[in-house]
Design brief:
Elements: H1 6-13, H2 18-21, H3 43-47, H4 50-60, H5 81-90, H6 121-147, H7 150-157, H8 193-208, H9 210-216, H10 226-232, H11 240-250, H12 252-258, H13 278-296, E1 299-306, H14 309-318, E2 323-326, E3 332-338, H15 346-354, H16 361-373, E4 383-384, E5 391-392, E6 402-403, E7 422-423
Parallel strand pairs: 6-7
Antiparallel strand pairs: 1-3, 2-3, 4-5
Helix pairs in contact: 6-11, 6-13, 7-13, 9-11, 11-12
Length: about 425
């Protein structure tokens, strides 16, 4: 009789009993968690006790010695757990998922080695899938942040030193859940299903794994330096998100926390973000930062009536001394003003917003309108939608919205017969 191998020993130590996963009599489970060829479902993560399996795997996996072991069932010294796991579980080397990269971790499940005991193959498959998915998301978001350096231009034009942004009211900690990871904003009035799901998953993952946040901002002495990190860190090594990814892929306890509840294994869950969505991924951060700078520099917007584009064009042409914005989604007009002079005149600033995409103009104007009308101004910048699990980002815009003193409240802006907007003193 052959001596027991490490994998067979682990199989004996970790058995998901059929009784534990059984459903009440007469109930049919349409989700097949144990078939490695079936579509993966988030509910199977706990049904299969994948976190317990990974913890047991980490405890029981031996370190390869120089004289014993071919590496097929042991981890090389200093080898990240994720690299070892994918190598041992798939039977193939070459997977490196602990750093930002588009070609070292792969984008599909590598498959389960025949050496893995049958009763462990479902857990292995779900763990593999989560590793690949998490790496893909970090890499995609990092690419989006690298692709756009608009923030540096905004700060320069507003005469703000990135190292001293806190006097302007910008504390990057406000963005860490979930905007720090490049929240993808489809538009103001509607979210794509995938977009909302990815944003909600990131938010929950960060809350579950605070060590990931700490890794991202480990080099920041205080919160006033964190916007500077967002601007500069993606361009150096390791990138801002790379530090967080490394923590997830080299510390299995952090990975277990980050992926709890199977949030990265759902059949229609997150995948690599397409390159043509890069601008949307970063624009939420840009809009928040710009609106905070505008607030600090005494800019504000006046909400006006809903009009068609012809009326807007006529009003704009006949009043060239004021800058107006017309939302193509809501058809509402806004006037951009400054209480004093500001660092940038309103026409130039408006041009930067709309033409140079310094921010999502609809998010900047319609967003704050919706936030104020809902009574959420001054509160959290990101609010969960309890009905669909998505996220309401209208309060990302911090641009103040007032009515001129003594002017009537436009009927279309009233909520329950009351005006939600304050008057400028």
């Amino acid at each position: 009789m052959q001596p027991p191998t490490f994998l067979s020993t682990l199989s004996a130590l970790f058995i998901v009993s059929s009784a534990a996963a059984a459903l009440p009599s007469g109930v049919v489970n349409s989700v097949n968690c144990t078939d490695v060829r079936a579509i993966p479902y988030a509910s199977c993560w706990n049904d299969l006790a994948v976190p317990d399996y990974l913890a047991a795997w980490s405890r029981e996996t031996p370190t390869c010695s120089a004289t014993k072991g071919d590496g097929s069932d042991c981890c090389v010294a200093e080898e990240p757990w994720s690299t070892c796991f994918l190598r041992v579980s798939s039977g193939a080397a070459g997977y490196e998922c602990n750093s930002i990269s588009i070609d070292t971790c792969g984008t599909i499940n590598p498959g389960v080695s025949d050496k893995i005991p049958i009763d462990l193959q479902p857990q292995v498959r779900y763990a593999q899938n989560a590793i690949i998915t998490v790496h893909s998301l970090f890499t995609s978001y990092n690419a989006a942040l690298e692709h756009h350096s608009i923030l540096a231009t905004i700060l320069e034009d507003f005469k703000v030193d990135p190292q001293s942004v806190s006097p302007a009211g910008i504390l990057y900690r406000q963005l860490e859940t979930p905007l720090a990871l490049g929240l993808s904003i489809a538009n103001i009035t509607a979210w794509g299903t995938k977009t909302a799901k990815v944003a909600a998953l990131w938010s929950a993952a960060l809350d579950a794994a605070p060590a990931v946040k700490e890794a991202m901002f480990a080099t920041a002495a205080d919160s006033s330096q964190q916007l500077s990190l967002l601007i500069t860190k993606p361009l150096v090594d390791p990138p801002l998100l790379g530090s967080a990814l490394q923590r997830v892929m080299t510390d299995i306890s952090t990975f277990i926390d980050f992926t709890s509840e199977g949030r990265f294994t759902n059949q229609d869950g997150p995948t690599v973000i397409p390159a043509d969505r890069d601008f949307d991924i970063a624009t939420g951060v840009h809009t928040f930062v710009l609106s905070k700078l505008m607030q600090a520099d005494n800019y504000y917007a006046i909400p006006m009536e809903v009009v068609d584009q012809t009326t807007f064009d006529s009003l704009s042409a006949n009043d060239k001394n004021k800058y107006y914005y017309w939302s193509p989604s809501t058809h509402r007009m806004y006037e951009l003003r400054n209480k004093g002079s500001g660092h940038i005149d309103t026409f130039t600033l408006g041009g930067h917003i709309v033409n140079d995409r310094w921010a999502d103009a609809q998010l900047l104007f319609d967003g704050n309108y919706n936030c104020t009308a809902a009574g959420n101004a001054g509160g959290k910048i990101v609010n969960e939608k309890p009905n669909n699990g998505g996220i309401d980002v209208s309060c990302v815009s911090q641009l103040p919205m007032y009515l001129p003193k003594g002017s009537p409240c436009p009927p279309s802006t009233q909520v329950g017969g009351k005006c939600p907007f304050g008057y400028l003193n």
